[in-house]
Amino acid sequence: MNVVVVDDSKVNTVFLSALLSKLEGVQSFCFTSAAEALSWCRAMEPDLVLVDYMMPEMDGLEFVRRFRESRGCAEIPVLMVTSVNEAEVRYQALEYGANDFLTKPVDKSEFVPRVRNMLALRRHQRMLADRAEGLASEVRMSLAGILAREHDTILRLSRAAEFRDPETGSHIQRMASYSQLIAKAIGFSESDQELILRAAPMHDVGKVGTPDHILLKPGKLDPEEFEIMKQHAAIGYEILRGSSSHLLQAAALIAVSHHEKFDGSGYPHGRAGEAIPLFGRIVAVADVFDALTSERPYKRAWEVERAAAVIREGAGSHFDPACVEAFFQQWDEVLAIHEAYPDVPRTSEKSASEVA
Predict the structure, then answer these.
(1) Which helix (H) or strand (E) holds 35?
(2) Beta-bridge partners for 319
(3) Which residues contact 336 (CB under 8 A, 6 or more apart)?
(4) What is the value of pTM for the model shown?
(5) Is 53 in a helix, a strand, or coil?
(6) How many Å apart are CA 68 and CA 40, to the nearest integer?
(7) pLDDT tens digit string along 108-163?
């Protein structure tokens, strides 16, 4: 246990240090400067402080006040050394956070039990802190396990929609990564960047409710068929909404809003501008870019420059201009993602409808 002794008298520090040396497991650190002692305490975090009241420049009261305000020093025991007739000083010291007192001249018979009591208090504090940290660690591990299972469930639901759709698994990886890049450039926190990365793959989960003759149609959809196809946004929202999971709540917003257009001409609700959830505006850019640059049974993949031109032209009409700008701020990373997740052919070829 580390005990700090603060007294402007060298004789007193030597005396107190000699008494402390007789206690097993105790190491003393002596200072004749209160300022130096305070700096040491802030850096090293002692287990007990013995401080004299009468000192030049910074007295014991001021030392205790500053010590208690220092990070990590709120609970460390403090013994103040005062004279018998300094009752007002003691009252003030208690207000500032002193735990107990030693009376000058220091009596060995009084000193040893008081120090032992204070160190026992400190050991108990450490034990409680270690127990609390252990419990917190267990909670973090349990929470991490829950989140991992939640993420796994979402990916599996995403794949369920994927297997009814001609889009590949690489599509959801790319568009989710593009979405994270945009969120980063806009200034999202790391936790919200992670959230959109995890939630974006659920954007088309509502296609599980789209009839096969429409979802898998090899040619262009007629107007009536396209109206049915558009229902997947609302269906996805109904599947995901109402959950207590923050992740599924975000996924529900993305599902219902990623086909809205900035000028209000999108679906399912025809929302415009900032009335469209920001997550949806971000995913709209990522999803369309990847759809354009991906090969489908009914079309060849566009060159990235051609797709980029469409995204730029759509700023202010189809897309939020701020999201488009953020997308192109990360252009090198976009190209890296495009190359990192190539489409993998399915084992059995399926026909496909147009990108809805």
Answers:
(1) helix 34-44
(2) 315
(3) none
(4) 0.59
(5) coil
(6) 14
(7) 888 988 898 889 888 888 888 888 888 888 888 887 787 777 777 766 666 666 66
CB count in 10 Å sphere of residue 155 = 17
d(CA 251, CA 313): 27
Smallest CA-to-CA distance from 310 within 330, 287, 333 is with 287
Give which of 237, 262, 265 is closest to 323, Cα–Cα.
262
Handedness of CA 305, 307, 308, 312 (dihedral sign): positive
For residue 225, the surrounding DSSP H or E stretch is: helix 223-240
Nearest Cα to Cα of residue 230 among 208, 253, 259? 259
The tokens describing 194, both together, are 């992670």
27 close to 1: Cβ distance less than 8 angstroms: yes
Separation between Cα atoms, residue 201 and residue 126, nearest integer Å: 45
- pLDDT one-digit tens code per residue, 36-88: 999 999 998 899 999 999 898 899 999 999 999 998 888 899 999 887 677 88
Dist CA 274 CA 259 (whole Å): 14
The label of the residue with tokens 């599980």 reads 208
| Distinct helix (H) and strand (E) counts, the chain | 14, 5
Phi, psi of 315, deg, nearest 5: -65, 125
Q: What's residue 275's pLDDT?
A: 97
Amino acid at 205: V
Tokens of 120: 């026992």
Rg (CA), the chain: 34
Looking at residue 88, its pLDDT comes to 83
Per the DSSP assignment, residues forming a β-bridge with 79 are: 50, 100
Q: What is the pLDDT of residues 302-333, one digit of tens each?
A: 999 999 999 999 999 999 999 999 999 999 99
Cβ partners under 8 Å of residue 158, min gap 6: 172, 201, 202, 205
∠ CA 22-27-30, nearest 5°, is: 105
Tens digit of pLDDT for each residue in 246-291? 888 999 999 999 999 999 999 999 999 999 999 999 999 999 999 9
CA distance 30 to 137: 36
CB 279 within 8 A of CB 199: yes
- Strand extents, DSSP E, the chain: 2-6, 27-31, 48-52, 78-82, 100-103
Share above pLDDT 70 across residues of the chain, in percent, rounded to a whole number: 91
